[in-house]
TrEMBL record:
One matching Pfam family: FAD-depend_C
Protein name (database record): FAD-binding protein
Domain named FAD/NAD(P)-binding: residues: 85-253
InterPro entries cross-referenced by the UniProt entry: FAD-binding_protein, FAD-depend_C, FAD/NAD-bd_sf, FAD/NAD-binding_dom
Domain FAD-dependent protein C-terminal: 270-466
One GO MF term attached to the UniProt entry: oxidoreductase activity
Lineage summary: Bacteria, Pseudomonadati, Bacteroidota, Flavobacteriia, Flavobacteriales
């Protein structure tokens, strides 16, 4: 039987196979020649002390011991071409994993996606960056793979109670992701690698008899006696089914408006909103690793910071080491920021959303919109930012110290945000209470992370799509909508997930509930 061991080592040892074996031979007092193989089970970085260490959990196989490392393979999918059909609206992680789970359970998914396939999206992303043209159906948020495909592919989640995180990670590996995502404390695929994985998932869905329809936007849900009968698409087609998984993502405002018009119960939901801050990666490294140069053995450092300011949480969100800031508007007349990193995280800058928690009472000026009040609050800030920055995809920007001191920055250095920036006093973008919290919060951040509060950092506004501003309520047991039978609100857009992993888990959960109801599983 292999021996498992937990220990700390220097970055040099952790990243060198021979040095690692030599270290282990001393720890367990076994000759180096007797160590046949070392398998890393878990890996994380401890930067709390001046000397940065790697935490490792390993399995050690001595000479003569059989090496049993489970091969990760795809599930035994069934051909479902002639099986009962379930409509899945949205091809993000919730929709894709729901579709794959349906196939595994013997049901036929019909996936409709308003955007283009994962490769076709690239032309529209280029148009946003280069020409400031926003396609309402194909952008950083909409299209095959959802928002996460071209905005990083982070797989870290705190939502361990939501479901089987390991199963989702192993499915990603089976579809081509690096085995490292099973090992690293903060797994990450990278925007450059995730598209192929998403494409392979879609091809498997089609191979097993499912359907995937691109550039097919849902415009109506057919309901009779409070039970779904099917859907109508933008081009006038009708698709019939009495089970619908609604996995449309947190930016599908037209879906919320559709449900509201049809008097299908939805409710306003609190979310967080703020800015995206960009620092030189070398500066973040020096702060986090307490060194002038991180060297070749340490990865670009992330950071995570939380403060209570004025009775509200202000925190870093979707931090992207070695990454860039991207334009994520989903309609003309608005600007939205997000961040992503390639798999190597080798860009010169680090960026993170820095956001403040909002409350339902903050949306009172938009009370006439009912359950859509938070969405209209969000929209108003995005539209104001668009006007202030010149009515293009440029964003309002300000140096961090200047913002805390209410100074318009005399010049904004070139940042990773390709469409460009316009120097603006951020107080013009946000409501007064939010501006004040952000100003105080950045000062507090600077006290906790010496060097963080600097004019080398540039703030971009707004970071506004942190989570859905609407919840589509469902029964806690059946996962069906409280009012409409056969409708399964799912993932981030329904308010039940916050990232790729939790969305994928929720998609699987909805698929399993449908299979249970149809007596496919017990």
């Amino acid at each position: 039987m292999p021996q498992e061991l937990l220990f700390q080592v220097s970055p040099e040892i952790a990243t060198n196979e021979l040095l690692l074996k030599q270290h282990i031979s001393k720890l367990i007092r076994v000759d180096l020649k007797e160590i046949q193989h070392v398998s890393i089970l878990k890996r994380s970085i401890d930067a709390r002390q001046k000397a940065v260490k790697f935490n490792l959990k390993v399995s050690i196989y001595l000479v003569g011991e059989p090496i049993h490392e489970a091969k990760i393979e795809l599930p035994d999918y069934k051909n479902v071409e002639n099986s009962q059909e379930v409509i899945v609206v949205g091809a993000g992680p919730a929709g894709l994993f729901a579709a794959l789970q349906l196939i595994e359970l013997g049901l036929k998914p019909i996936v409709i996606e308003r955007g283009k396939d994962v490769r076709g999206r690239r032309r529209d992303l280029k148009a946003i960056n280069r020409d400031h043209i926003v396609d309402e159906d194909s952008n950083y948020c909409f299209g095959e793979g959802g928002a996460g495909t071209y905005s990083d592919g982070k797989l870290y989640t705190r939502s361990k109670k939501r479901g089987d995180v390991t199963r989702i990670l192993e499915l990603f590996v089976a579809y081509g992701a690096s085995h490292d995502i099973l090992v690293d404390a903060h797994p990450h695929i990278g925007t450059n690698k995730l598209p192929q994985i998403i494409q392979d998932m879609r091809e498997k869905i089609i191979e097993m008899g499912g359907k995937v329809l691109f550039e097919t936007r849902l415009t109506d849900i057919i309901i009779k006696n409070n039970e779904v009968q099917g859907i109508v698409t933008k081009n006038g087609d009708t698709i019939l089914a009495n089970k619908i998984i609604l996995a449309t993502g947190h930016s599908a405002r037209d879906i919320y408006e559709l449900l509201d018009r049809k008097q299908i119960f939805i409710e306003a939901k609190a979310f967080a909103l703020g800015v995206r801050a960009e620092h030189p990666q070398s500066l973040i490294d020096s702060i986090q690793y307490s060194c002038d140069y991180r060297g070749q053995h340490l990865p670009p450092s992330p950071y995570s910071i939380v403060k209570q300011v004025g009775g509200r949480g202000m925190y870093s969100f979707c931090m992207c080491p070695g990454g860039v800031i991207a334009p994520c508007a989903t309609s003309p007349g608005e600007v939205v920021t997000n961040g992503w990193s390639p798999s190597k995280r080798d860009q010169a800058t680090a960026n993170s959303g820095i956001v403040v928690e909002l409350r339902l009472e903050d949306f009172k000026p938009f009370a006439k919109f009912g359950a859509l009040a938070g969405m209209e609050f969000q929209k108003s800030i995005e539209q104001k930012a668009w006007h202030l920055a010149g009515e293009t995809q440029k964003v309002p920007a300000q140096k961090m110290v200047d913002f805390t001191q209410k100074k318009v920055s005399s010049n904004i250095p070139k940042t990773s945000y390709v469409p460009g920036t316009t120097s603006v006093e951020m107080g013009e973008v946000f409501p007064g209470f939010l501006t004040q919290i952000l100003r105080e919060g950045f000062v507090a951040f600077g006290k906790s992370m010496r060097g963080f509060l600097t004019n080398e950092a540039v703030l971009h506004a707004p970071e506004s799509r942190t989570s859905s501003p609407v919840r589509i309520p469902r029964d806690a047991e059946t996962l069906e909508h409280l009012q409409i039978k056969g409708l399964y609100p799912c993932g981030e857009g329904a308010g039940y997930a916050g990232g790729i992993i939790s969305a994928a888990i929720d998609g699987e959960k909805c698929a399993m509930k449908i299979a249970q109801i149809l007596n496919k599983i017990t």
